[in-house]
Amino acid sequence: MFLIVAPVAVFCVFVARKLLDDFSHHLGILIMVVVIVFTLFDLLLLLMTSGRDPGIIPRNAHPPEPESYDGNAEVGSGLTPRLPRSKDVVVNGVTVKIKYCDTCMLYRPPRCSHCSICNNCVERFDHHCPWVGQCVGLRNYRFFFMFVSSTTLICVYVFGFCWVYIKKITESEKTSVWKAMTKSPASLVLIIYTFIAVWFVGGLTIFHLYLMSSNQSTYENFRYRYDGRSNPYNRGTIRNLQEILCTSIPPSKNKFRAKVLKEPGIPPRLVAGSFVGRSNMEKPVVADDIEAGNKPNCRDEDETVRFSNDESVDKDEGSDLSRNLTSDAADVRITLHPRRSSWGRRSGSLDISPEVLAFAASQVGDSDRSSGLNLTENGQ
Q: What is the secondary structure of 56-123 as a DSSP string?
């Protein structure tokens, strides 16, 4: 927008304003009026190209069923049905391949392609234009062509009247063209700017005129070129132009203003094990489900053993842990840190081998016997 508005503003202030009184019947004011109207129209086309849905095909929530496609599903390893990567359809008597899109989980219609920048499948995909920040497709190609062609006309208009103003200076002051340019540096800058810009927008206008007359898109022209076979969409120059410029634009397949329905969440998982204490029978502990989107509990860096009396014992306290694990009165629940839940064991549970329990029981018996011996010696 700045590349369009800024030179037009310079033209109106330093060139068109000086030509207001140089034409009879006050026709000089039309120079400024025409360029302002053209600029507003050009900006409107730019916004319509950038803001319209180019023809995005909504994605499928699930891949299509293989049986719904004439039973042509391939069978991969493990006898799992797999959709074919492409299908053949007939367009105007010519066989055209349509491909399956893994991202959108659908078979693309003819002339549809997936834009790697927008990450959407777009009908009659032409190209992704970084200057308008949007894909150019079925529903905005017409406005894109009008935008490019009107920008070309503005460049030619400004370029021509800058030379008219320089010629007026040479006639009024009886000087050379170079000296007249030094007296109006804004005209010189605009001449150079529009001369460079017209090669880009003018070249695009001519190129898209050729594409429309042959009913091709930029993507098809660079990728296929229809070498050795006829274009199945070409119906003649006049009918091709009518199809692109004069037919009604199909409605959008997306409802961007509709409310998004909240998907049902995954039910929480219960930690394997018994309940903690008699008072907590009605309150089971729920494990953090990372796949369901719940935030894990990251309060402790180490694994923690929780008891019914809300005490916490670190894993470094080996003797107390072994005594409580072998006690029948205390019911233990172990909560693993989420980042360590994949260390070769099941998340949310801790399996203790019988050998470890026997060793812990022997350690508890030895400590009891040593404590009794010490009491006997103290009594003596």
A: BPPPPSSPPPGGGTTT--EE-GGG-EE--SEEEEEETTEEEEEEEETTTTEEPPTT-EEETTTTEEET
Based on its alpha-carbon atoms, the radius of gyration of the chain, rounded to whole angstroms, reads: 38
Pairing of strands 304-306, 333-335: antiparallel
pLDDT at 207: 95
pLDDT tens-digit profile of 209-251? 999 999 999 998 888 766 656 788 888 899 999 999 999 999 9
- List, by residue number, the catalytic residues: 129
Question: Around 87, how many Cα atoms within 13 Å sit in the side-chain half-sphere?
Answer: 20
Beta strands 94-101; 106-107: pairing state? antiparallel
The Cα–Cα gap between 74 and 99 comes to: 15
pLDDT value of residue 263: 72
What are phi and psi for residue 192, nearest 5 degrees?
-65, -45
| Helix axes of 141-173 and 29-51: crossing angle, nearest 10 degrees | 160
User: DSSP per residue over 282-348, as a string?
Assistant: T---B---TTTTPPP--S-SS-EEE-TT--EEETT-HHHHHHHHH-SS---EEE--GGGTTSSS-TT
From residue 162, give the alpha-carbon distance in Å to each of 7, 12, 150, 185, 202: 12, 11, 18, 10, 19
Predicted local distance difference test score (pLDDT) of residue 284: 45
Residue 151 gets the label, from left (phi > 0), alpha (psi -120 to 50) or beta, of alpha
**pLDDT, tens digit, for every residue of 303-353?**
444 444 444 444 444 445 444 444 444 444 444 444 444 444 444 445 566
Region of 263 on the Ramachandran plot (φ > 0 left; ψ -120 to 50 alpha; else beta): beta
| CB within 8 Å of 55: residues ≥ 6 apart | 122, 123, 124, 125, 137, 138, 139, 140, 250, 252, 253
Q: Does the structure show a pLDDT above 50 at 380?
A: no
How far is it, in rounded angstroms, from Cα 326 to Cα 335?
18
